[in-house]
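Comment thread on ticket #2218

A.B. wrote:
> Attaching the input chain for the structure job we discussed in standup.
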Amino acid sequence: MLGMTEEEVNRCQIQEWYPKFKSVSIRTLIHELPEYFVEYLLDDSGPFLLPASVSNDDALPNRIHNAFEEEDYQVSEGSGDEAEPSSPPSFPELELKIKESIESLGGAVFPKLNWSAPKDAAWISTSGTLRCTSFCEIALLLRSSDSLVHDLCHAYDSCNDKTLTRPPSFFLALRKWYPSLRPEMEFRCFVRGRCLVGISQREVTMCYPALSEKKNDIKVLIQELFDSNVRQEFESENYTFDVYVTKDERVKILDFNPWGAFTLPLLFAWEELQQNVGEEGDDVEFRIVESQCTVRPGLKTAVPYDYLDTKPGSGWDQFFRNADDELQRQTRSPEAGA
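C.D. wrote:
> Ran it. Output below, let me know if you need it in another format.
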């Protein structure tokens, strides 16, 4: 496995690559995060507190009032459990900037930090997705995500020349939310020696039979994007990039990642890709899930059992109702044309 350098990892930060590839990516607004907000994300010394909103937004569904259940949680006087409750933090300037960005992006976004999105925390949102319409919803996802600890603490752990423990600054990227995006049209592309050596279906937990008919056309579109917009513009020799192919055959760059280490090879093995020394004119191998028998297990994040209060009238009862409504809406949605 080829090692990576800090410089190669840094090039894959969204605030580094997005300005250069803006014309072939999805609309994104980026905010530098104040250090005190980063400290809030890392703080696990006290109770889980969401920021107090200056806009009076709430990130979670309100529980329907049930006086009988609340009796179970009453603390009697003199019990010794009467410590002063912690005050929620507040980030008014950041919240107002983010609110303005969300509005300019159409009212809904999905967030990510320098490298990663909080995909492992999607279960806690009211829609079961990364769709956010407020600062508090974004804070909930960021604060609940274990995968973002990589960005905050471990981004350089696999570097051969590691001298940093974290980047100088952290950024929050707000990306326009497209409700009709179809997961089967997202692909990961592998570049070695500045040559495209492999393409993999990004969602490997499902088989999409229609992809087989489109496979050759999709490969041509991705190769054209790489040759025209990526090969000479992205400075690294070895890396991966993710793309989305729209209904009208436009290819949008979603992300860049370093070669190896924490980047998943999906339907390939890194050893296979190492052997694919690309040369001009070589046929790029394009792998998709051909049948249900070849579906790969996904990296799913389970909901903690303690949170599963699903009785009628509970907040989670409403959460699951919202999730069902969202699934039905997406099922009825026409093909993506983002």
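A.B. wrote:
> Thanks. Noting for the ticket: The mean pLDDT is 84.
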